[in-house]
Amino acid sequence: MSPYHRSVLEQEVMELMIQDRDSAYLDATLGGGGHACSILNRLGSGGSLIGLDRDPEAIARCRSIFSEDSRIQLHLAPFSRLGEFCAPDSLAGALFDLGVSSHQLDDRSRGFSFEPGTPLDMRMGPDAEATAFEWLRDASEEELAACFRGNADLEKPRFLARRVKELLQEASQPDSEILRRAVDDVYHPQSPERNRLLARVFQAVRMRINREMAEIREGLSAAVMALARGGRLCVLSYHSVEDREVKETFRDFERDCHCPPALPVCICGGGHRKLRKVIRKPLTASGKEVAENTRARSAKLRVMEKV
Description:
This protein is α/β, with parallel strands linked by helices. The chain is built from 12 helices and 7 strands.
C-alpha cells in the first residue's frame, strides 16, 4: 500500500480488539485503509468488516483496494451515522482513529495545512456545511473566540478572534495567510513555537468546520449500542482536546449510577454501566514507531469493553 496514511499502533489495536476471527467489526475511520487491511488479514472466512469514512477520496481508494474482498462493506458517512449500518449488539469490535489523515494534511488543495498559500477549506467531506473561509467570514467574534478557546485551549482567544476578523476584511485572497498573520500579530511567537501555535489554530477551526467534538460524542455512543457484550472499542486520539472528549464520553458509560452527585442516596436504581477499561492507562507509540512516523508521537490508544 502507498503511504496515503500510515496507521498508528496497528499491532496493538489488532491484538486488543480482535478476539473472534469470525465475528463482525467496524472501522469507523477508514482513511487509507491501513487498519482495515490489518483487520481483514486477521479475520477468518466468517468474519466481516464495516468501513466508514466521510471523505469521498478515502472511500474511492478503499473501494479499489478491497474490491475483491466480499467480507467488507464500505459506506460514505461520518461515524455519527454508524447506527444506520451496524445493528444493535452486533459488533465484536470497533475502531476510531480520530483527527485528520496524513493524506488530508499533505494535499494542500484540501486546505488542512497552514503552509503559505493554502486555501481555507478544511472540509473532511460533503457533509460539512461550510468551508473554513465561509465560517470565519460569517461567524461573530464571540463564536471565533469560543472556537479557539474550546477546541485548542488557546490563550488570548478574543484578541485572536478580533484580529482574524480584521484581516478577513483586508484580505484580497482567502487563504492560510489570514490565520498565519493573525497568530504572528497576537502572539509574536518564535520558531518553533510559531508552528505549534499555527497547528493549534488550524486544529480549532478544522474541528468546528467538521463538528468533530459532536461527532466523537455521537459516534462513540452509537458504537457502544452496536457492540455485543464483550465487544471492544478502540479509540486513537492525537491531542488533548479530543482525548478529553473521549475520556468524558467513556466516563459516562462507566458510571453505574446516573443520579446527580448532590443526592445523598441513589434513586435511579443503578445498573447503568456499559463499559469497563481493558487497559488502565492509554497506550502510546514506541520510540521506534515515532522515529518512522512522527505523526504517531502524540497518539493515545484507549480500549474499553462492553459489559
